[in-house]
Amino acid sequence: MQKLPGINHLEAIRALEKAGFRIVRQGKKHIVLSNGGRFLTVPRNNPINAFTMGGIAQDAGFTVEEFRKFL
Known about the structure:
Blueprint: H1 9-18, E1 22-26, E2 30-34, E3 39-43, H2 50-59, H3 64-70
Antiparallel strand pairs: 1-2, 2-3
Helix pairs in contact: 1-3
C-alpha cells in the first residue's frame, strides 16, 4: 500500500468532495462519505496516518497521484 503523508482530515474531506463523494454522517471520531456506490470512513486525526490516507485513496478508486490532483 502506498503512503500519502501530511494530510489533515479537512483537506481529505474537501478532496473527496471534489471527487464526487458526499458526507453521509459525522461522528465524534470519524466522518463517513459516499458516492452512491462506495462508502469511505475518514478519521478525524490531524494529520491522518500516511498508510491510512493511502488506503482511503485506494478504497475511493484512485492512485495516490490521482488523489493528489484533488488536493
